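INTERNAL AUDIT FORM
Audit reference: QA-55
Scope: verify that the stored structure record matches its stored sequence.
Auditor: D.O.
Record contents follow.
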Amino acid sequence: RRPVIWVSWFNAIEYCNWLSEKEGLSKVYDNKGNLLDKDGRVTTDPSKVVGYRLPTEAEWEYAARGGNLSKDYKYAGSDTVDDVAWYNSNSGGKTQEVGKKVPNELGIYDMSGNVYEWCSDWYGSYSGFAQTNPYNDSGSGRIFRGGGWYCFRNRIRIAYRGFLPPSSSIFDLGFRICRTSF
């Protein structure tokens, strides 16, 4: 009932591949962490991926902001952090059961606080031009978003982004999975 923690980016993509294959879907990542299309070819287009995967940073932020129902909140579902997030001031020093706070506009829980969540992309600067679901396939570390139970409220904001080497695992970092809908 509580989110998984102490999981590296590599552990998260292994889970995505395992679940995809268990459900008869194609593997999503190769052993270097590249996205794979339905035919097993490396791709940078998440819309070509069939199985379970980590969301891109853009997908994560879109979902956290409430998608097309967004009310432009600072946190996922509210401007009042205590309504939606577990963080250092209210977590009791540990992760909490998912779904105990208010969901965002899409009905998704815990996108602000409880645990940071790995994204599929590498960390890099944002592009200077508009894009739909960009995927950064090179950079200095893998992106994580969302803030954790140990964080101060400024790191719980939807806009906060961080990165770590993909082999890293820490006490308030987990993951959320998604699938492309066809």
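Auditor finding: record pair retrieved intact. The two ends are 29 Å apart (CA to CA).
Action required: none
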